[in-house]
Amino acid sequence: MNEKTRAGWGLRLWAVFVAVILVAPLLVVIPVSFSKRASFAFPPHGWSLKWYASIFEDPRWITAIGSSLLVAVLVTALSTVIGTAAALGIHRVGGKAAAAVTGALMAPMIVPGIVSAVAIYAAYLRWHLTGNLQGFLLAHTVLSMPFVVITVLSSLTGVDPTLERAAASLGAGPLRTFLRVTLPGIARGIGAGAVFAFVTSFDEVVAASFLQSPQIRTLPIEMFVSVTNEVNPTIASVSTIILAMTTVVVLVPMLARSGEQRQKQAKR
């Protein structure tokens, strides 16, 4: 066995080890959510769906789920539009100015979450944006937009600039050139960025803990309150639902992309 083969097997074993570490908690949370007793004992003593039923019977959970979905959908739309526009500007300007703007936009991904949350809270107190939908939208958009910028910039590197110049030379205006030439080339990057923005907003808990109010409380905050005040598998049921939702959100674009590739190969 040569050195490359040993390195390949070592990398595979490490990948398997990391996958087991990441998946192991799920193998506990999911069965506990079906427990019959009001405890976190594992393995569960009996099986029941009553904890899932309790979620949809409790107005607190319903309100929290609705608030999270509303915020996540609106933030996804805002982040996708603004992030795509920013990526287009950065790609076309280039140079040191573009690098500086990119670094500023990436700051929410680099700065620790608690630092960003405290800074947002301090600013929002002056602007009276705490405890309302507008504050959540602005804060989550700032935290989610970098993912859109990254994916769209990556897609733009694969777009041939001569196609845009050719479209312009044939009389197409900037908007038509973007819709007919640029947008199809970066559509997958925009879609990937939108998925990341949705998941980031839906799961955000640090900044939300500072911005919450009795009028608006997202699902992660309700989960935190439930963990501290209650001892039953309801939180495990909510976690399982979130896991299923995020898995669907991530897998659907991947399956659609693989389907398109198979169709292209079949036509060839």
TrEMBL record:
Leader sequence residues: none
Transmembrane segment boundaries: 12-34, 61-90, 97-124, 136-156, 177-199, 235-256
Lineage top rank: taxon: Bacteria
Keyword Hydrolase: no
Every ABC transmembrane type-1 domain range: 65-253
CDD domains listed in its UniProt record: TM_PBP2
PROSITE patterns named among the record's database cross-references: ABC_TM1
InterPro entries per UniProt: MetI-like, MetI-like_sf
Subcellular location: Cell inner membrane; Cell membrane
Keyword set, alphabetical order: Cell inner membrane, Cell membrane, Membrane, Transmembrane, Transmembrane helix, Transport
Record SUPFAM superfamilies: MetI-like
Name of this protein: ABC transporter permease
Organism encoding this protein: Streptomyces cuspidosporus
